[in-house]
Design goal:
The complex is a heterodimer.
Chain A lengths: L4 E3 L2 E5 L4 E6 L6 E7 L6 E6 L5 E4 L2 E5 L5 E6 L8 E8 L9 E2 L3 E6 L1
Parallel strand pairs in A: 2-11
Antiparallel strand pairs in A: 1-3, 3-8, 4-5, 4-9, 6-7, 7-8, 9-10, 9-11
Chain B lengths: L4 E3 L2 E4 L5 E6 L6 E8 L3 E9 L2 E4 L8 E7 L2 E6 L8 E8 L10 E2 L3 E5 L1
Parallel strand pairs in B: 2-11
Antiparallel strand pairs in B: 1-3, 3-8, 4-5, 4-9, 5-6, 7-8, 9-10, 9-11
Classes of the chains: A mainly beta, B mainly beta.
Chain lengths: 113, 116
């Protein structure tokens, strides 16, 4: 079973602060995705990274895939209240298993105005 | 195009009763997933279908849970009999073949189930 551990589990910060969320595993993944889930809704895809060392930016969010494709990080610059939500990483294992993903344990972020 | 539709949005039932959750995937999507989300266990995959055929049901907790997909536009997840530990938010998601490792799953709004 492939496990994805996220840290921290909970994070409460003031508007304007920076933060980093980590997603770690002992398994290698063919790709890693980050989803955000708002209260009362389902997760929504933010980004997919596929190459070891890859960095993608989405406005104030920066995503990185580890060189060994076992871990990933999400960095938010100047957090805003609209960033509040549950952040989930999701990994795809063997290349043939494109459709099935394993979700991480989640990081609940609260940005206080 | 409408997203994934789930019904009901909330369900409160008593222990021992049968519960049926419903899902309509996005038109044209050939994969359908059922997940369960709790504070303790996070988001867990229960079962997924490809072209209406169950592919992997290894996440289904026990025989009390069953899922069907009679056609491309409808799926059900049934719990019989229900127990308090089944209380959770159940999500349905769908996706489409062809995007490879960039494949995105589209989630419904979830059904919040409470078993008393």
């Amino acid at each position: 079973t492939q496990l994805l551990e996220q840290s921290p589990q909970f994070l409460s910060i003031q508007e304007g602060e920076n933060l980093t969320v980590y997603c770690n595993s002992s398994s290698v993944f063919s790709s890693l995705q980050w989803y955000r889930q708002e209260p009362g809704e389902g997760p929504v895809l933010l980004v997919t990274v596929v190459t070891g060392g890859e960095v993608k930016k989405l406005k104030r969010l920066t995503f990185q895939f580890g060189d060994a494709r076992k871990d990933s990080s999400l960095h938010i610059t100047a957090a805003q209240p609209g960033d509040t939500g549950l952040y989930l990483c999701a990994g795809r294992g063997r290349p043939g298993g494109y459709q099935k993903v394993t979700f991480g344990t989640g990081t609940k972020l609260q940005v206080i105005p | 195009d409408a997203g994934v539709i789930q019904s009901p949005r909330h369900e409160v039932t008593e222990m021992g009763q049968e519960v049926t959750l419903r899902c309509k995937p996005i038109s044209g999507h050939d994969y359908l997933f059922w997940y369960r989300q709790t504070m303790m266990r996070g988001l867990e995959l229960l079962i997924y279908f490809n072209n209406n055929v169950p592919i992997d049901d290894s996440g289904m907790p026990e025989d009390r849970f069953s899922a069907k997909m009679p056609n491309a536009s409808f799926s059900t997840l049934k719990i019989q009999p229900s127990e308090p530990r089944d209380s959770a938010v159940y999500f349905c998601a769908s996706s489409q073949t062809g995007t490879g490792i960039y494949n995105e799953q589209f989630f419904g709004p979830g059904t919040r189930l409470t078993v008393l």
